[in-house]
Amino acid sequence: MIIVLDFGGQYNQLIARRVRESNVYCEVHPYTLSVDKIREMAPKGIILTGGPNSVFEENAALCDKELFELGIPVLGICYGAQTMAHVLGGKVATAPVSEYGKTTLDVDTKAKLFKEVRGTSICWMSHTDYIAEMPDSFKNIARTENCPVAGMCDEEKNLYAVQFHPEVVHTEEGTKILRNFVLDICGCKAEWKMESFVETTIENLRKKIGKGRVLCALSGGVDSSVAAVLLSKAVGEQLTCVFVDHGLLRKNEGDEVEAVFGPSGPYKLNFIRVNAQERFYEKLKGVTEPEKKRKIIGEEFIRVFEEEAKKIGAVDFLGQGTIYPDVIESGLGKSATIKSHHNVGGLPDYVDFKEIVEPLRMLFKDEVRAAGLKLGIPEHLVFRQPFPGPGLGIRIIGEVTADKVRMVQDADAIFREEVARAGWNTKISQYYAALTNMRSVGVMGDGRTYDYAVALRAVITSDFMTAEAAPLPFELLQKVTDRIVNEVKGVNRVLYDCTSKPPATIELE
Ligand code: XMP
User: Fold this and answer.
1) Which of 138, 357, 405, 477 has the fewest CB atoms within 10 Å around its CB?
2) Closest Cα to atom 11, ligand 1: which residue?
3) Do domains 194-382 and 395-497 have the same CATH topology?
């Protein structure tokens, strides 16, 4: 195992990701993790990340000198490199010229860290301070035009530092450098595979939970599903999963989730499905403002969940499917404790449980999917497109009613079916039908209609922060349109949303 000590830099997730890509298990911890704890955890190596601070600021985030005396290899990156230099007696100063972006790097190819690395390549820099003087026993092993110590090491003590960011793709030799550290210098065996994650996680959950009771909110989304199955494998009967059907799910979704996780499914979970449709529709009656709708749905979800928790009683742990990108507090010494983040559609963050268990806390989305497959969760659940917590509530413009939910569910089911039939489901990131609040005149048979317009939305995106409308073939759109106006009562027009994000968002509300 490699421990990444997080000093709050923006690329820290990437470091963990690159280590994992070398099939080495790695955990990210706040830089305040004590040396005693590290000794106890016995990692094969430690990586100090970048961070926004400056070592000579008052109350600067620094690590303990003892960390470098454990005999465990350490690699400092950017601020991590400066911290190492500062703590070991070198000198860090404001660089006369700051470096940002792609920079030419020269390295000593004889250094262990740069084994098989090209002597000259491009690296990614992002710093205003630099190492002005190295600690005594260190050797300079890399430089750029404006950074004389872009890399240094004390090979005898296995201490290494680089000013640039090997974890960023723009650093051409970055992956090789990190592999050299993790595999050659730390001696990790590259054996970490999803099987071992699943096994060790189940074992650790067992130890942690003991004989306690766990409650888990299950939405049917990939994260909460994988978390629930892991927990169930760990503690079986001690786990209860609560699935709240708020009446704003996609067509047949409630039954599909129940079929997999309910009593007749393969997992034998204590599964409680709460059919709260009417309750949500009642609360949403007459409400048209998007934020108000979101708040009502979120709050009602919490109330239902709390009521169920009370009925079960004496629950010690709350299980959650929080994944690594959801973990925003890991750095800067904030301990990630009970009132941590939640990612399941509006769970309370003031929950009254002894502790929260988050078995996926260290995983990225694609790793969660891999774990899901290993656990035998069906592919259609594992590769589900994202679905927002407030569900169809934010895909129905204006007031939500049961009849509008029916229309949007039916139209959406047709759209998804035809997209899949045409083989576009694997090419687009998210797609759905929404119900606009617009009614317009049409003619059907010999009669006039005055019905709703459905909006189709399909986007391509990698991070969901920006997105482009998918160029779906016109024949496909036409087929979907024909089917929707023919099969969905109350709809007489279909529109395709061609707007990017920005300026639009992916969801309509
Ligand atoms: P927007 O509409 O903001 O959506 O462009 C970006 C991504 O986030 C999803 N989304 C949500 N997910 N709860 C969620 O769990 C929400 O309230 C929520 N709102 C938007 C959206 O589906 C898209 O993938």
Assistant:
1) 477
2) 388
3) no
